[in-house]
Design goal:
This protein is an alpha+beta fold and 437 residues long. It contains 11 helices and 14 strands. The protein has 2 domains: 200 residues, no CATH class; 221 residues, no CATH class. The relative contact order is 0.19.
């Protein structure tokens, strides 16, 4: 027999017992729908968790800090010495880190070692001031809003929140707060202040040209003003009464390491930690969350698979009853030339067909249920938003692979469930089958 002969015969046999096939398939529908809905829920929770991680927008980024060591201070010849396991981010350390496989860029950063006030006309503001030893903030994967990301002496690139921090120190009671100023191409004053040993405040004013503004990044860049490392070192030298920082001894306060791809980020992070420094990457957090939700998907899928197991027993029972009812038919098929393989193929095809129909129905039911659950969740989140609680509203996510997997898996369950009854049918003796009442 040809394939289409088998196919048409299987369809005809299933069509003869519509009621029984439908009742058997309902069990597969319920099991498949449970698998699709529960795995979609776990996938939606995973997406919701990762999308709500504040500031994780570059999975190749690794933040490295000095290791200040542990243990008490030691007294040697009357002199206090720090723990011996201190690891500073010196110039030699940067060279060592850059030599690690998978490292793309090593970008030192440093902070202002004193207080500063930002002035623009009559308005004042504040923000973190950071020096970066790179020609452009593009190396940090930052996005420009206006202007440029190139860092030069005497210029500053401001984060998206800095304009919103401006206020009028002489504002009168009842007066409206000022609108955030347009900072692009403006010349701002940075007022540095320190205190002398005799309690006198000393100020120094520097003028900076705003060369660019950043798009909102949802991380520390939003509240930071970036300047060249040369400018920052000069200001810190003024704060330290003329003492220059020795990078070969004191090192940098922070280094950003860019990996070549997210796939190697965790390995590079672990390697840096093995060198004795303190390294952290958002990719480690994301991988930990993903691992948890993969386990959750397996658990949810297993719960749904229990319903499919019950449905599999139903398919096996249906096919066993079909053999008893069609014993004489099987004997007649063998008497006119059907082989054991032909009979086995027909009954396995019928069992797989029941699984396919149930899988198709369950896939549609599970997909529709996930959409309904999303609508209910959106309405709930809308009510929460009115109370000031903000969420992204993600409830369930049904990937295409899950829909295809559900149909294929249900068909396979039907196929395996019909294996024993089909083998019994294929091994019947034609004479005994024709005499069966």
């Amino acid at each position: 027999m040809h394939f289409w002969d088998f196919f048409s015969l299987i369809i005809e046999n299933l069509n003869r017992r519509k009621g029984r096939v439908a009742l058997t398939a309902i069990g597969v529908v319920i099991g498949t729908a449970a698998v699709v809905l529960l795995v979609s829920l776990a996938t939606g929770l995973q997406k919701s968790a990762t999308s709500n991680l504040w500031g994780i927008n570059d999975l190749t980024r690794i933040e490295v800090y000095p290791n200040w060591g542990s243990g008490p201070m030691m007294m040697v010849n009357g002199v206090a010495e720090s723990p011996s396991n201190i690891k500073m981010l010196t110039s030699a350390a940067l060279t060592e880190i850059a030599a690690i496989d998978g490292v793309d860029k090593v970008i030192p950063r440093d902070y202002l070692n004193g207080s500063a006030m930002v002035k623009l006309g009559k308005l004042e503001s504040w923000g973190n001031i950071m020096g970066v030893e790179t020609a452009s903030l593009e190396d940090l994967r930052y996005l420009v809003n206006e202007g440029t990301l190139e860092l030069r002496r005497g210029t500053v690139i401001v984060g998206s929140w800095i304009p919103k921090n401006f206020y009028n120190p002489n504002m009168r009671p009842g007066e409206e707060p000022p609108e955030p100023p347009q900072m692009m191409d403006q010349r701002i004053k940075l007022v540095l202040s320190k205190w002398t040993e005799d309690g006198q405040e000393v100020k120094k004013t520097v003028t900076l040209q705003v060369a660019g503004t950043l798009q909102e990044m949802r991380n520390e860049a939003d509240g930071t003003m970036y300047v060249s490392m040369t400018d920052l070192e000069a200001w810190n030298q003024w704060f330290n009464n003329g003492k220059r920082v020795n990078r070969n001894k004191d090192g940098y306060q922070n280094v950003i390491v860019q990996a070549v791809s997210p796939d190697v980020t965790v390995d590079v992070t672990n390697h840096i930690n093995d060198l004795g420094f303190m390294a952290y990457s958002p990719q480690s957090t994301v991988e930990g969350i993903n691992s948890f939700f993969v386990v959750l998907q397996i658990i949810f899928g297993g719960i749904g698979a229990i319903a499919l197991l019950v449905a599999a027993i139903g398919i096996a029972n249906t096919m066993t009853m079909a053999i008893l009812e069609r014993t004489r038919e099987i004997g007649l098929m063998k008497a006119i030339g059907a082989t054991n393989k032909d009979v086995l193929t027909i009954f396995l095809g019928e069992a797989a067909g029941i699984g396919f129909l149930g899988g198709l129905g369950g896939m549609l039911l599970g997909w529709g249920g996930s959409k309904v659950l999303n609508i209910v969740a959106m309405q709930f989140m809308a009510g929460q938003a009115e109370q000031g609680i903000v969420s992204n509203g993600i409830s369930t996510v049904t990937p295409t692979w899950l829909l295809l997997f559900a149909i294929i898996f249900a068909t396979l369950v039907g196929f395996l469930s019909g294996l024993y009854p089909a083998l019994r049918a294929a091994t019947l003796e034609p004479v005994m089958a024709l005499k069966y009442e």
